[in-house]
Amino acid sequence: MKFTSFAIPAALCVLGTAAFAQDAAEEMPATVADIVMESEDHTTLETAVVEAEMGEALMGEGPFTVFAPTDAAFEALPDGALEEALMPENRDRLVQILGCHVVETRALAADVVQMIEDDGGSHPVTTMGNCELNLTLDGDMVKINDTVTVTTADLEAGNGVVHVIDGVLLPAM
């Protein structure tokens, strides 16, 4: 009798803990790669990530901050530039271009604004693609290299954050 009175509550505790762990796993935020791949406005970026074989890396532990250009941003590139970058023989260049959009830290918009203000109005950032970005404020909008604007900020993921941008960041030639 003593064993039964102990075994039933113990079993219920184990089952309850297992159910809680399963619920927590189901609520885990998406990765930065998942955010991009689930977005209707980032199909070109998704294609580029797949072609560059970077999806697995962006599903990794991170943390990452991804500046995600929209399909419209890619459409604004010069004629043929995107098609050329997506060619298999240009994979290294594509990886570098995509790397210009990823920083190995988690930086929410408030953090970025604070860094810009702390640095006197301009904050330099080096990306995974070894691109040098210059972050500034134009009113309440974050600008990158004076030409690209963060249009939607703080799409949070379990391994970082995505900021939607209206231009494609290219490495220096």
From TrEMBL:
<feature type="domain" description="FAS1">
    <location>
        <begin position="29"/>
        <end position="169"/>
    </location>
</feature>
<dbReference type="Pfam" id="PF02469">
    <property type="entry name" value="Fasciclin"/>
</dbReference>
<dbReference type="InterPro" id="IPR000782">
    <property type="entry name" value="FAS1_domain"/>
</dbReference>
<dbReference type="InterPro" id="IPR036378">
    <property type="entry name" value="FAS1_dom_sf"/>
</dbReference>
<protein>
    <submittedName>
        <fullName>Uncaracterized surface protein containing fasciclin (FAS1) repeats</fullName>
    </submittedName>
</protein>
<feature type="signal peptide">
    <location>
        <begin position="1"/>
        <end position="21"/>
    </location>
</feature>
<keyword id="KW-0732">Signal</keyword>
<dbReference type="InterPro" id="IPR050904">
    <property type="entry name" value="Adhesion/Biosynth-related"/>
</dbReference>
